[in-house]
Amino acid sequence: MRYIARMEPSLDDSHDDWSTRHSVRATALRTVALVNALSVEHPDPEGVADVLRAHGESGDLGLTPDDLGDLRAAALLLREVFAARRVDDAVTALNRLLARGGTGALRLTSHGATTPWHPHLDSDDDAPWGEWFLASSCLALTVLLWDDQRPPGALCASPACPNVLLTQGGGPPRRYCSRRCATRERVAAHRRAKA
């Protein structure tokens, strides 16, 4: 079980600020960052904690080796959603994850009146890290797919990169996880064309 260390701003905080930090897009960006950090065979516990802190968690996160294993298992399951190239495949992957039992029923919580009301799919406010990560990620990716009627993410188009990315936003869908990957592939294509 995890210890409550999640960022729980007081209701005195600006509602707009809380909403921005915990929006569907912010949750999806956290999902991407965690999937990428946890996709290596032996994820760095402090690196994972740093990602969680960068996305709003605070305090002593108390990540145990079992927590890291559960988070990594959830990350590997979520990669299937990002690997889907067609909306029907993304829907199938999300429905499979939602039905597998790693998520609870949709519920609203305010974490004991410390936050504005918001939806959760995990079984309890004190759910284990892996369950929380899988459930909150599924919820965010489901809403993004619902809103745009296309897969919410993809695998980086660079063959040398294992990362996932969000494809949605303004403009055409993204293909690369970073400018570095996009530049590396453009330079390689240019060199191939010159050769």
Description:
There is one protein chain. The chain is mainly alpha-helical. It has a single domain (15-153), classed as Jann2411-like domain (Jann2411-like fold, Orthogonal Bundle), CATH 1.10.3300. The chain has helices spanning 15-21, 24-38, 45-54, 65-83, 87-99, 129-148, 179-194; strands spanning 107-109, 118-120, 153-155, 164-166. The strands form two sheets. It has a two-stranded antiparallel sheet with strand order 1-2. Strands 3-4 form a two-stranded antiparallel sheet. The longest helix has 20 residues, at 129-148. Residues 1-14 have low confidence and may be disordered. Pfam families: zf-CGNR (PF11706).
CATH class: Mainly Alpha
Number of helical regions: 7
Average pLDDT across residues? Answer: 86
Q: Total number of β-strand segments? A: 4
- Stretches where pLDDT falls below 50 for ≥5 residues? 1-14
Named at the architecture level, the CATH assignment is Orthogonal Bundle
Structural domain tally:
1
Determine the CATH superfamily: Jann2411-like domain
Give the % helix: 40-55%
Distance between the termini: 57 Å
Shape descriptor? globular
